[in-house]
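User: Hey, my collaborator sent me this sequence without any context and asked if I could get a structure. I don't really work with proteins. Can you help?
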Amino acid sequence: MFQMGSGDGVVEIDFLERRLLSDTDSNEDNEGEDGTILYTASFQEMEENYVKYQTAQWVLYSLLLILAWGIGLFMLLYLPVRRYVLRKDIQSRKLYVTANAIVYKVTRPVPFPCFGVLKKEKHVLLPSVADIVVEQGYLQSLFGVYSVRIENVGVRRPPSDDVQIQGITNPRAFRKAVLTRLSNMRSETFSRQLSVNEDLPNFGIGYSTAARIRQNIGIGVTSNLMSPSKSLRHELFPQSGELILQKLEEVESSVKRVQTLIEEQHCQTSEVD
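Assistant: No problem. I've predicted the 3D structure and written it out in structure-token form, which is a compact way to encode the shape of the chain:
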């Protein structure tokens, strides 16, 4: 652990820390999982390094505040409680990747553990993930601690809005698991779109055929409407011939009657003479 001050001070901090840890219940609540878990991140191997890193950071801030305002002295006295809170925090962390989301759950004591605990549960949908960024600052590199930041797709937000997690044992494996699942999801989406596009030309052929049929029908109707003389000639000419024959017969009968009248008059005049 990070050593501060003399050996007696270190022993006293360890004793208080073990005392606080022994007073709490270490059993974790069983939680229902939504969907199949594809990858589960681990924090246990990095517990000691994470606590050391946070302790060193806390001590540095305390020393600066002692020189500035004197508040750092109270922060040094609070250090055992701080270490207890950090241990309970990292021991309760659960981070896993499902088929559709990244799930992060943590249960941590409040700054004064006698007032209870805080529960945090974060679900990040995989389609909204742009990238998984693995970071390590100078002080983190001294203790082998990494930070993982989940960036969102779309309009760029400030880094404070991204989900940031420290103390993952193997952050690169977690990043690989997320990116692999994202790649598989995009491949599935592309294959579905490709199958739909392959079916669309069939509907297009049927539609064009029907359109051509309707077009041909329309052309036939239009041609009939635009040239009525042709149909009238076929339909009216037989009727006109019959009418002409009837008229000729009537004229012939009239001529015969006229001839008969003329002959009768001629016979009458001959008899008179």
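In plain terms: Helices lie at 7-22, 47-68, 72-77, 79-92, 138-143, 171-226, 228-272. You can pass these tokens on to your collaborator as they are.
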